[in-house]
Amino acid sequence: MNKTALLVIDLVYDFTNENGLVFYKENKAIIPKVNQVIKTVRDNNGLVIFMQHTYRKNKFDKNLENMRPNCIEGTGGNAIDPLLDLNEDTDYVIKKRRYSAFYGTDLDLVLRENNIENVIITGTKTNCCIRSTVHDAYYNNYSVFVVKECVATNDEVVNQVHLNDIDKYYGKVISMSDVENVFKENL
Fold it and tell me: What CATH number did the domain enclosing 165 receive?
């Protein structure tokens, strides 16, 4: 196993399907690109982890205080988009209830158990879950790489502002063509 893992963040039904509760066309548009990155990661013996944004049905969740309910267990809204190349035998699927993929999950444990030092990040939303995850990965001493064609939010200006900050302070914003280099340079 390589020292690099790919995080596919929150590409679930409510975000990626036109009938989803918080659908953005930008989320659906990145799925084919994310699948290309998944293939590159697998071809280089990297670990693939899908983060599944999930709220509990009929239970309090602080994140829902300021937004309409979405990604609720038992509704299908938190299901990983079936267009994604999820391999249930080799990939991890980790549920999360906060913006950061690290907060309140066993993501850090899974990464450390697999001797991961580098995380490549894809998914949605750049200004919420991507950025929060980037911060926590950086604070936990992982090298962070965000694939610019494979993250999205509903406003391209907002997307670019957050990518600029990430690239300046927390990690590297890379293109899809640079993903293979992450493996070559971080053995």
Answer: 3.40.50.850
**Helix-strand-coil percent breakdown of the chain, rounded to 5?**
40, 20, 40
> For the chain, how many structural domains are there in total?
1
- The secondary structure of 146-159, three-state, reads EEEEEEECCCHHHH
CA distance 132 to 140: 12
Q: Structure tokens of 99?
A: 């913006």
What is d(CA 187, CA 174) in angstroms, rounded to the nearest whole number?
18
* pLDDT bracket for residue 72 (50, 70, 90): confident
**Is 68:61 a contact under the CB 8 Å cutoff?**
no
Burial class (CB in 10 A: 0-12, 13-18, 19+), 67: exposed
pLDDT class for 54, splitting at 50, 70, 90? confident
pLDDT tens string 118-160:
999 999 999 999 999 999 999 999 999 999 999 999 999 999 9
Lowest mean pLDDT among 20-24, 30-34, 147-151: 20-24
Domain limits for position 17:
4-185
Q: Which two tokens stand for residue 103?
A: 């907060």
Say which residues have a Cβ less than 8 Å from residue 109's Cβ, sequence separation at least 6. none
